[in-house]
Amino acid sequence: MEETKSVIKEGEFDRSGQYDAGLKSLVRALQWAFGFLLVTIIGLMIYFLTAGGYFSVEPQHAVIVMQFGKIEGQPYTSGGYWFFPYPVHRWVKVRTNQQSLRVDFLPADRPDGAPPQALVPGRDSYLLTGDANIIHSSWRVNYHVASSSTYFTSLSTPEDPTADDAAEADVNGFVAARGPQTLIRNLFRSAVIDITSERKVDDMLYGKRTEYSDAVQTKFAELLAQANCGIAVDNITLEQVFPPLKTKSAFDEVAAASNTVDSMRSKAEQYAVQAGNEAAAGKTELIATAQTYKELVVSEVKSESTYFRSINAEYIKNPKTVLMTLYTNTLADVLQNLQGKYILGTTGNGFKQVRIQLNPEPKRRPAPVAKEK
Amino acid sequence: MATGNFFKHWPTMLLGVVVAVILLVAVFSYQLNQTESAVVTTFGRPAAITEPGLHFRWPFPFQKIYKFDHRIRCFEGGSGKIEETMTEDGQNVLVGIFVNYRIDAVEKFFISLENMTNAEDRLNSLMRSAKNATIGQYKFSQIINTNPELMKLGEIQGKIQSTLERDTAIYGIKIVSVGINTINVPESISEKVFERMIEDRKVVANSYLAEGTVRSAEIRSEADQQKAITLAKAEAQAREIRAQGDAEAATYYAIFRENPELAEFLRKLDSLRLIMKNQTTLVLDTNVAPFDLLKPGSEVLGPVKPAAGAKE
Question: Would the pTM count as exceeding 0.80?
């Protein structure tokens, strides 16, 4: 403390010496403050040159490093890196993981229960189909940045490229977004319109939805490739597609008619199956009957021939007896089961009048006696 | 003494030097990113700088630096972007377009438009003009059509792009691509479209039902036909089998030729058995054996009076 030299010459200012001690204290305080400031600045510089130049890259990002504004080398992926800080180097992060964007062609939200209204351009969004119908649809686009350096150098991005597009106002105060998402959304809308405007409404609503969606994806990938902006489409999803609410009941009628037709067709097919089964059964029955006939007739004839052979042998020995025996046996068998049997004796002249009721009515059963209560 | 003071106050001096260097660098240099182009005006005379890196500059008021992002910007059009346009066949249609553009000649851009806001205002005007002029050359059926040969949407976009490329070249703007992001019809026409769609749907529903009826009738008819064919073939096959049976049976008939009279007699007996059933009424006289035994004068019974009209 003794060696501290005052910047104020002895007796020059404070001739009386009454402020000397105070001035000396002030000078010391200023010197301390300057020293503290110097140390702080040096500390900040050390921090700036070390930690200020360090950055780490998460796996879902890539980092592009620029030296005095010029891109240096390839984008840096996962890991920690150190570069001389700004103004020598500057780095920007770009998202490389999958990103999702929803693109809608939907009517504006209306209060619950509100009746369907006409579509107002600018308020409601929709698509015109190739056969001049109107449909709404909702899509989800999944994409990723395939080349972060191409993406960063070719597309105008926000200050922070990982942020969403920023809204900008034009000279008339019309606010709209600018940035990569805007470009992707517009390219996708263009692809959807291109494909929709050449297809029939029924194809998109019913039978060929997948084909429609695939065509849009192909067209969108083509537009992205032409833009050469380092973005690749992963997939797109057609989340919903439906006709305008005002026409919904008419489309429901078509769906109902379609269901009716399906039902009719199903019943007709059932009938066809049944007819096929009946035909197969009939065929089997016919063949089986024929086979049975064949077996039966052959076996009958075979047995008859055997019978004939044996009878014939006896007949040769005693024809009259055999014939009479066979005849009387047969007659006995026949007459045994007959309902009406009339034996008429012959008269002298040989003529006789006989009256017989043919097909007599069957005998009636006596009516049941009513039970007494 | 002075040298002593210098070494004594080196930290102060160093700090001063560092601050001075930083200030000098900041004042006499500027950085241009790879995504940017710049216009440097020296006493108002512009010069384009496109090379990224660290550049020397004279401080204000000698030189001014104007930097522009020369990457692709997507512009959807400002006010009036959705307005009615007439097609060649007089149909009102609302077509919205977007433009992907970038600054191609920064000096030209700076002189003519000065900044991005002015550029997009001018671009918006040119877009509306090019769109309306181009759409007016095409029929509505060339904008939407299920026949690819009649569809001219791609051609329309190409034509708008060509027009814009020509019109924006003087501003140093390069049109990268043009696309259509909206095709709508006026509100009143959308009502008409709805009415037609509803009528179309009714036709489609009736058509579905008619086709379904026809188809189901076809299916039933085909099934019946197939059934008839199957049964006819089966009948033919059955007949063949029966014929085989008859043919096989015929081989056994040869035995009957040994005694045709006996065979005939036996066949007659069989016929009697088959013909005479329960409901049959048979009237015989006593000349038929064995009822001849009942005749008067029968050898066995002797002369007895016949019981004519006897009934069981």
Answer: no
